[in-house]
Amino acid sequence: MNLPVPAGVDTAGYRLGPPQRAGALTMVPVFGPSYPGIAPPRSGLKLSRVVTYGQVELTNPSASGVAVVPLHVGYIQDAAQNHALCRSAFIAAGQTLRFDDACCVQESQGGYLSERDQWFFILPVELRAAALGLRGTNQYSKLWGDIARFNGRYGLPARGHLEQVLTRRRAVLTQYQSRLELLDGQLGALFFVGDTLAGVEIAPDPVYFAEVWMALVCFAYGPAAWFASAAVAAAAGPGAACEAGSLDDIRAALHRRRQSVADEVSEWLSRAAWQPDSVVEDERYLDLRLSTVSGPAAAGQVVTDGSRLVYASLFATAL
């Protein structure tokens, strides 16, 4: 299986591991070369202040290393309104960057934050195309209509409050973190919801990916998988009982099952039409380039050094 990234991006040294499945969510681990000098998103990046609705400040407190802000990162916190970002960005060591085009995803009151008050998520995949299209638009309520439709899809009140899923369904969504295993050395993943490629997430190194893992598997792709799994379970009805055989029989059956899943996922990936229409450079930091990817089936942002892949967050524009 090949890594579905824009043409011209060098993926030499990357490889895909065996697929893992939890209900409707399939994760294919990605391994590859680490890129040094990037601050990880939890320990090396802090939401320092909510200035006002739609304006937030992030700080890279590291003594060295540039921070690559995860695309569509959002923060849940006490004493300040919850926000998500529409874009990625570079933040140099010791610097603070204000985002004027953030999305307010819940009304509250602004203020300064302490570390214990906040945790971060990545916007659910169903909202990411809309959020990316709204980057540069300075209007704090700009995503509320999409959030209302997202909530309605899950049988919740149709209003612009993302916490109805992220916090009130958090116990259900965080089960994906334990049902899918983050492997040693893993620095990325392909995510499928049902038989559809939903996301390609590549980090600069395994530390970065480990810190964004929960935000991705539980909150970016978990809601769509939870909804799809519930729909499949309701249609299928009670499952059939299986008969236990010898240990060798069980091992052989497990091997056949793993090979079947690998073949199935390979076929899904081969028919994923993810070639973008355009890749447009947005920002530079020394040799690093941040670019926005757009196309009829997938969009997102990538960071490259020359042609070398450093970071990618790509997602299906429709599920």
TrEMBL record:
Q: Tell me which residues make up the ARG and Rhodanese-Phosphatase-superfamily-associated domain.
A: 14-271
Q: Which domain of life does the UniProt lineage start with?
A: Bacteria
Please give the InterPro entries that the UniProt record associates with this protein: ARPP-1
The family database entries (Pfam families) matched by this protein are listed as:
ARPP-1 (PF20208)
Protein name stated in the entry: ARG and Rhodanese-Phosphatase-superfamily-associated domain-containing protein
Natural source organism: Dactylosporangium maewongense
**Taxon lineage:** Bacteria, Bacillati, Actinomycetota, Actinomycetes, Micromonosporales
